[in-house]
Backbone:
């Protein structure tokens, strides 16, 4: 396996101003050292004795200052994108105060001026990431970086912004992080924190620990051959190379002493001895453990499933190979899952033909409902995708060792040069069966609101867990969303440090097909009705999913930022009733009025 090199360094930590006012300050006003215990041994690090600067760039030549508007140009609750000459900023007025931060979401570059402002934070209109308007810090996901924050001053009724040219150009800021004090105190077989899995949950956990000043050894291990990457792009942008979708460059892991063991698999965990046993026999002792192994794709059980050119999309290499083989060829996709539908959309213009096989009579029926599912299906059919519904594969046939035909139980025979299987997934938790960690009947790891398992010091996060969802009265649910994996990782890290933080985020997901994005917030499992506003045929609509008269989820196409607005309503603890959809809720979205968000209750 490969280990990202770590270097013995002197600790350099800057704690945000709000944290410096807490109990770590000594009576004389100087910072006292914080202490973490590793296997009974105290490790010390010292905070720097000055607060974080309001702007990290100190070169005067890099700074620009400009008058951007009159103080009366913005009302409370308004945002405006302003140009400083060498870049733009987002100017915000809330509760009589002006704030200025980066104007683009660091995740995929969405214009935040089109997002939702509520109670001191702005939510991205595309994928739901949230940022504190006072600090720029990311507070909900997806994405890893925060927004740059700029200085605002008022002179003679005019609003001025002072900003770094570099920050205006990059539009992102990585939070200050600690580094490991000394790796010389450890041998290869011992770590303070072991993270099994290097997806979004694992990476955010490691980054959060460093952001919170944790300065001991962190080891991540993954079966993948790559450093953490943007996994949703495997089906949305299939020809992306690993370096193009990497979440962080190799240098990042070196700088912050986050070690990554690639192409390694944990075979068992001994929770009593706090030892992880790897498949090759290597053993590693840990103090805290995060299990974030995600899911494993289901495979076909029919005859011929081992034939060449039949794929599950798990890695960038899988996706790249499928694109290469599918170009101008016949493709059969089994399963109208998110992965299956995204792959079909991506290949439709590249392949000679794309056929999709599905057991249900409408794609996405259980998730989006029949009416929305039919509208999406029509969009696919208009783009040359052929559906074979209410059937499944009975056999895969080969010629000279390679796939030639897909035989359906209906008797239909489809020509196929490539087959992509997207029939669901199961949690990758088989190695935990004898560990004593609580696993439910479906194989999911059971955790509480702090992402803790039943075993002290063992946490779990991401697609492989069930956790109490506040939005649904703390019902234990599995939410295999990219955004949720980020938040799981953060909550787990905070509670490794005994913060006592509970998860309360609203699930948010998106999918992109044929240039159309479906956005979704909430948890609609078991919905009994769908209230639709807009035009399904024109693919410009919003759908409210209700259960017992309460809105539990929302989906939309071409109706931004309505899903982000509903997510903010739900995050504020508000209940949206079915009767409100046509009146108060919809009207307030059309006018942009968020005043009814204040307070709690229905």
Residues:
């Amino acid at each position: 396996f490969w280990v990202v090199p770590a270097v013995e360094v002197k600790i350099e930590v800057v704690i945000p101003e709000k944290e410096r006012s807490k109990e770590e300050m000594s009576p004389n006003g100087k910072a006292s050292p914080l202490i973490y215990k590793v296997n009974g041994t105290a490790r010390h690090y010292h905070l720097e004795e000055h607060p974080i600067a309001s702007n990290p760039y100190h070169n005067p030549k890099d700074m620009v200052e400009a008058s951007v508007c009159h103080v009366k140009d913005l009302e409370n609750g308004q945002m405006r994108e302003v140009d400083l000459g060498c870049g733009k900023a987002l100017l915000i007025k809330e509760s009589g105060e002006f704030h200025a931060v980066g104007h683009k979401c660091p995740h995929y570059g969405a214009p935040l001026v089109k997002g939702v402002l509520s109670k001191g934070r702005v939510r991205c209109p595309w994928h739901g990431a949230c940022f504190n308007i006072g600090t720029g810090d990311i507070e909900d996901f997806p994405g890893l970086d925060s927004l740059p924050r700029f200085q605002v001053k008022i002179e003679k009724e005019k609003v001025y912004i002072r900003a770094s040219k570099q920050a205006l150009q990059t539009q992102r800021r990585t939070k200050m992080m600690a580094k490991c004090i000394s790796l010389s105190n450890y041998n290869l077989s011992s770590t303070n924190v072991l993270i099994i899995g290097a997806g979004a949950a694992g990476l955010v956990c490691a980054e959060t620990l460093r952001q919170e000043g944790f300065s001991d050894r962190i080891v991540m291990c993954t079966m993948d051959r790559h450093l953490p990457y943007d996994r949703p792009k495997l089906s949305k942008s299939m020809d992306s190379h690993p370096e193009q979708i990497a979440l962080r460059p190799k240098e990042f892991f070196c700088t912050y002493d986050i070690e990554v063991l690639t192409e390694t698999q944990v075979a068992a965990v001994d929770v009593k001895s706090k030892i992880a046993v790897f498949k090759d026999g290597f053993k590693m002792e840990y103090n805290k453990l995060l299990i974030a192994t995600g899911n494993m794709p289901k495979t076909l059980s029919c005859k011929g499933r081992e034939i060449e050119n039949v794929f599950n999309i798990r890695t960038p290499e899988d996706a790249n190979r499928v694109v290469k083989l599918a170009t101008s060829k016949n493709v059969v996709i089994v399963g109208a899952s998110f992965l299956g539908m995204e792959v079909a959309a991506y290949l439709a213009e590249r392949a000679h033909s794309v056929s999709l096989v599905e057991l249900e009579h409408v794609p996405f029926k259980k998730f989006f409902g029949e009416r929305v599912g039919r509208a999406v299906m029509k969009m696919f059919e208009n783009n040359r995708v052929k559906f074979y519904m209410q059937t499944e594969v009975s056999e895969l046939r080969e010629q000279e060792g390679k796939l030639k035909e897909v035989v359906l139980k209906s008797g239909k025979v489809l020509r196929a040069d490539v087959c992509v299987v997207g029939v669901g997934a199961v949690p990758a938790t088989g190695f935990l069966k004898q560990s004593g960690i609580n696993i439910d009947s479906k194989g999911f790891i059971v955790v509480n609101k702090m992402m803790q398992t039943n075993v002290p010091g063992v946490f779990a996060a991401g697609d492989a867990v069930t956790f109490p969802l506040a939005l649904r009265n703390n019902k234990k649910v599995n939410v295999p969303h990219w955004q949720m994996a980020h938040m799981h990782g953060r909550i787990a890290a905070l509670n490794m440090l005994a913060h006592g933080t509970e998860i309360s985020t609203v699930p948010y997901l998106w999918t992109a097909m044929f240039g159309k994005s479906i956005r979704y917030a909430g948890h609609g499992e078991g919905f009994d009705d769908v209230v639709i506003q807009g035009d399904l045929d024109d693919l410009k609509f919003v759908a409210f999913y209700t259960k017992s008269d309460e809105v539990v989820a929302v989906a939309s196409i071409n109706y931004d930022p309505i899903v982000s607005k509903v997510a903010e309503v739900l995050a504020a603890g508000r209940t949206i009733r079915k009767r409100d959809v046509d009146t108060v809720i919809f009207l307030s979205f059309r006018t942009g009025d968020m005043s009814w968000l204040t307070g709690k209750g229905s």
About this structure: The radius of gyration is 25 Å. The first helix runs from residue 17 to 20.
